[in-house]
């Protein structure tokens, strides 16, 4: 709601011939007035009352021409429906969010209509997602830059689905740079962009860039799902209390704060990749405890499809730390969910082989490592192949199979592109 308030504030200020400095008076700065008018800042109830006094109107008038109660109730319904998406009830949330979108359009509230479309896009796939994103771009085209930028992560998701990962990264990077350049460092939006950039750089294999964005996103992040849910509930309760007392300006500020938290809660799958990037950096630096903590937290918040890979990585860290039983438990948990014939299946066999070797089971270790090498070679999974070759070759040599060890190493190096000598 803060963007419509900002537009209204700008209209009334210019109608009265006031500068931003004059409207700010002695309590605020011209820069603060500018940030409210552009939608970069959400004004507090005190600020709205002060500006209304400066303009000679009631604070409620800053909420626009529609009934202030009706607009706040629209935002409350939008947030409650978004809660259903987050709870995994997309089947019932989708038609309700579609009704909110139509209601927002009837009330001439393009921002709420656009946000409703973004929630619909976030929980859709394929052509439906593409359609919702395009409609959200149209709905928000007249909004200030921070609001228009809310579409960018989902447009990047559409591009990624089309195989245009580089274009998606360029779009996110450009949007992030332009917001900083033009003076819109809105925390919730920067968090969203940085988390998405970290996720995509990590999927591309660029750990350095992923870790850079991940660290800055994690600094802006306010807590886990339970903490953010509790903060959201608190703001919504405050909003309803203000609404019951007809304090519409305060209610608007509370509902805006609640919506920022909802955006952050929707980011948890991307935040899991931020934690994953930081875990890898910590692991390389020898911070085993930090890496294990980040991987465990990532596993709790990731999309279900990402959990098996994170679990295998967590097991590998426990194995490297000598915690064999914990590693074994994790690998047993994840085995049924790993799809056969995939790079993750090769990684699982590598870790099972490493576990067997650590337990002194040379025969079992050789079987698992041999299977990992064969599968990784067939898939062209170079990372797994590189890490499986040496332990398999060493193990075969230790058990007196020097020729087989030499053959495994030679064939593996050929598969990696080495020239035959």
Automatic annotation (TrEMBL):
SUPFAM superfamilies: lambda repressor-like DNA-binding domains, TPR-like. Keywords: DNA-binding. The keyword DNA-binding applies. Residues 9-62 form the HTH cro/C1-type domain. Gene3D superfamilies: lambda repressor-like DNA-binding domains, Tetratricopeptide repeat domain. GO terms for cellular component: cytosol. The keyword DNA-binding applies. GO terms for molecular function: DNA binding; DNA-binding transcription factor activity. This is Transcriptional regulator, contains XRE-family HTH domain.
């Amino acid at each position: 709601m803060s963007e419509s308030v900002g537009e209204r504030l700008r209209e009334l200020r210019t109608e009265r011939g006031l500068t931003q400095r004059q409207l700010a008076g002695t309590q605020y700065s011209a820069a603060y007035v500018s940030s409210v008018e552009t939608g970069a800042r959400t004004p507090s109830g005190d600020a709205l009352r002060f500006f209304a006094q400066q303009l000679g109107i009631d604070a409620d008038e800053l909420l626009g021409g529609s009934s202030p109660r009706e607009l706040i109730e629209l935002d409350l319904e939008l947030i409650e429906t978004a809660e259903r998406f987050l709870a995994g009830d997309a089947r019932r949330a989708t038609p309700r969010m579609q009704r909110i979108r139509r209601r927002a359009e009837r009330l001439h509230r393009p921002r709420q209509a656009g946000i409703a479309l973004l929630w619909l896009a976030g929980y859709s796939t394929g052509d439906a997602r593409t359609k919702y994103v395009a409609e959200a771009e149209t709905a928000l085209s007249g909004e200030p830059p921070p609001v228009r930028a809310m579409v960018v992560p989902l447009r990047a998701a559409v591009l990624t689905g089309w195989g245009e990962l580089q274009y998606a990264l360029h779009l996110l990077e450009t949007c992030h740079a332009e917001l900083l350049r033009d003076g819109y460092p809105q925390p919730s939006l920067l968090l969203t962009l940085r988390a998405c950039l970290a996720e995509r750089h990590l999927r591309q294999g660029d750990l350095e860039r992923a870790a850079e964005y991940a660290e800055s996103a994690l600094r802006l992040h306010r807590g886990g799902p339970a903490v953010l849910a509790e903060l959201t509930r608190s703001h919504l309760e405050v909003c309803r209390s203000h609404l019951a007392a007809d304090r519409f300006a305060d209610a608007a500020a509370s509902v805006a704060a609640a919506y920022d938290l909802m955006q952050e809660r929707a980011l948890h799958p991307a935040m899991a990749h931020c934690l994953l990037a930081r875990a890898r950096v910590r692991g390389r630096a020898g911070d085993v405890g930090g890496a294990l903590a980040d991987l465990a937290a990532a596993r709790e918040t990731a999309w279900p499809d990402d959990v098996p890979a994170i679990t295998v990585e967590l097991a590998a860290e426990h194995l490297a730390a000598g915690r064999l039983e914990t590693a074994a438990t994790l690998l047993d948990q994840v085995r049924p969910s790993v799809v056969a014939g995939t790079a993750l299946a090769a990684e699982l066999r590598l870790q099972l082989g490493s576990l067997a070797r650590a337990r002194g089971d040379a025969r079992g270790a050789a079987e698992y490592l041999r299977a990992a090498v064969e599968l990784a070679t067939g898939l062209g999974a170079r990372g797994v192949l590189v890490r499986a070759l040496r332990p398999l070759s060493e193990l075969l040599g230790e058990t007196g199979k020097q020729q087989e060890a030499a053959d495994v190493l030679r064939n593996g190096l050929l598969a990696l592109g080495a020239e035959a000598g």
